[in-house]
Amino acid sequence: MNHIAIDLGSRESQICIRDNSGKILTQERRGTCSLGKYLAGKEKSRVVVESCAEAFVVADAARAAGHEVVVVPAMLVRQLGVGDRGLKNDVRDAQQMSNVSCRLTELPTVHIPSALSRERKAMCNMREAQIEARTKLVNTARSWLRTQGIGVMRGGGQETFPERFRRHVASRGRKVPEEVNRVLQALEALNLGIAEADKQLTTAAEEDPVCKLLMTAPGIGPVSAVRYAAALDDVSRFHSAHGVEAYLGVVPGENSTGESRKRRMTGITKAGPPRVRWTLTQAAWVILKCNKNRTTEVMDPMAAWAREVAKRRGKKCAAIALVRKLSGVLYAMWRDRKPYDPNHMRKAMQQAGMVAQPPAP
Prior knowledge:
By secondary structure, the protein is α/β, with parallel strands linked by helices.
């Protein structure tokens, strides 16, 4: 079996092919967009690429051509010798990756997400990019009010921000300048785009059986469900809820040495996809807020457990603990194909001693 290492670039990529003995057979540059056709004409080989924006498209094309595919994590390529001694260029990188592929039977590889998973991530990313752009434009318009001494407007209601902005300026006997009006027009266009993105995301979540199942859990809406399902992609690749929690980076880190007998735990590792942690954190705060004024008997069991944690460690710690608990619960729901049942959850948590047992009759 030959070993094809490709140092990917946005326009062109460097290719190095070695045989099983390590002898270099071919070195050449090819257009990145033509790699699929190039790999289809090669005999069955091991294709090695570094994880980047183009990696998964190339991996799909290599798999379709019958090749074995390895997508090396970007954080590990240095340990494989890429960039050793401060020497790093496309030709050398491709040579080093192909050399390592010849020497090692098993190479570290990342999970190659499915096309559906990548489509969902792109859907969420584009929506969030629009929201971030809207936030920046809103802040820019608000700053103009302060520089003019008009005062910051307040209130909400059914009016959109551009409508309230124009009415507020008119109430002060002023006219909105042309440059500010262009910002307001961009905001109106963004509002329409975000509304369409919300509708598309909601439709995608309601049509997917996994997302519909996840949305039965408290605090989980279309965005959280789609983000979570896209991040895990295939629930069978995780052996337990603890594996999911570690993958999402919501488990405590550790900073202990061999000489110390005491384990020194740190904050959560934040090793996984940050957007999934962000959406789950919002879901955790929603759970805490909705159960704020409820009694322990009627509130959600996860909220009751988080309330006890908050008494000992504070609200922020309780919210992060709830994020970890929620990520494991969602995994169990997906694995067992069962909707969220608060009564079953309460019994399980009582048996584990996480919440108080009901008083004896």
